[in-house]
């Protein structure tokens, strides 16, 4: 009995749809027509895009694009943007989006508005705020790099001055050694006591001792000079590494592709998608209309 009742109900439903199919088709067409009409009546939405390169330090991002996106979609930042743009908070939430690809140091800002000027304004506003935020993170690191390089450069200059002093000292010692040697040779050539005597022997011994002491001092200066030059080489390499890291492996945030005024470019309505939605709603309203009409007629005949 239950299966027969179900068959009867299904038969009644099909019969009702067939009997009221003209009305159903009319309702369906009205809903689809209204949906398509609304697609073209809705005001145009203009959009412009700006791409930013995020700051990098030693090949590492200051912060990931995902973190930046979460930050600028927070209530605090949205309120700031709403206040600066003179738009409502609900409107601002729909006026821009921040997009990025995982692992890439770029973010794409898409600003939307009812006019090209409004789209440009919101895009530039969000872009400026992101750049300012990134620059606040980058500036202390930049200052640290510059300070470290300045300290190393100062130390390098000090080493160069010490090396110059040691080289002058070495030249003076070399001159003294040459003088002592010449004096020793001169007195060694003396052939008689009249030319040299005891005093000459004493002076010669003094020159020999001075020569030995001076050569010892010269060896010490040469060792110090070698050590200073090695330190200078190492320091120079450190400075070059720092400069390379700062110049090539670190980059401040900047605008990669600037936004353009969307004079003729706007977001076109998705006609196919809207037609599908309208058709689905049309079928729903058509069936609902048939059942309401059938139920109303039955109540009148009872």
Walkthrough of the structure:
This protein is α+β, with helices and mostly antiparallel strands and 302 residues long. It has a domain at 142-248: Helix Hairpins (Orthogonal Bundle). The chain is 73% helix and 10% strand. It is built from 8 helices and 7 strands. It has helices at residues 2-19, 21-41, 65-72, 75-85, 89-95, 116-188, 197-248, 271-301, and strands spanning 45-53, 56-57, 60-61, 96-99, 106-113, 254-257, 266-267. The strands form 2 sheets. Strands 1, 4, 5, 6 and 7 form a 5-stranded antiparallel sheet that branches. A hairpin with a 2-residue loop joins strand 2 and strand 3 (60-61). Helix 2 (21-41) runs antiparallel to helix 8, helix 4 (75-85) packs across helix 5 (89-95) and helix 6 packs antiparallel against helix 7 (197-248). It is rod-shaped and about 145 Å long. Mean pLDDT is 81; it is low at 1-8.
Which key phrases capture this entry?
302 residues; 8 helices; rod-shaped; 73% helix; two-stranded antiparallel sheet; alpha+beta; five-stranded antiparallel β-sheet; disordered N terminus; Helix Hairpins
């Amino acid at each position: 009995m239950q299966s027969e009742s179900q068959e009867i109900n299904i038969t009644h439903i099909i019969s009702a749809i067939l009997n009221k199919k003209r009305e159903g088709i009319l309702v369906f067409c009205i809903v689809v027509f209204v949906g398509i009409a609304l697609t073209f009546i809705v005001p145009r939405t203009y959009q412009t895009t700006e791409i930013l390169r995020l700051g990098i330090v030693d090949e590492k991002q200051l912060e990931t694009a995902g973190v930046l996106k979460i930050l600028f979609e927070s209530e605090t930042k949205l309120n700031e943007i709403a206040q600066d743009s003179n738009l409502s908070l609900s409107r601002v939430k729909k006026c821009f989006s921040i997009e990025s690809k995982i692992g890439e140091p770029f973010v794409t800002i898409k600003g939307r508005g009812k006019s090209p000027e409004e789209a440009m304004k919101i895009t530039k506003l969000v872009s400026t705020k992101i750049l300012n935020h990134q620059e606040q993170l980058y500036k202390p690191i930049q200052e640290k790099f510059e300070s470290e390089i300045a300290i190393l450069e100062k130390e390098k200059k000090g080493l160069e001055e010490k090396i110059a002093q040691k080289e002058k000292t070495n030249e003076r010692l070399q001159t003294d050694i040459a003088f002592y040697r010449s004096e020793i040779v001169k007195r060694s050539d003396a052939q008689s006591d009249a030319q040299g005597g005891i005093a000459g022997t004493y002076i010669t011994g003094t020159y020999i001792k001075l020569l030995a002491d001076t050569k010892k001092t010269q060896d010490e200066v040469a060792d110090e000079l070698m050590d200073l030059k090695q330190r200078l080489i190492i320091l120079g390499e450190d400075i070059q590494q720092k400069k390379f890291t700062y110049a090539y492996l670190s980059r401040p945030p900047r605008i990669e592709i600037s936004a353009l005024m969307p004079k003729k470019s706007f977001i076109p309505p998705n006609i196919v998608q809207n037609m599908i939605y309208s058709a689905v709603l049309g079928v729903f309203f058509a069936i609902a209309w048939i059942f309401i009409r059938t139920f109303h007629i039955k109540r009148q005949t009872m």
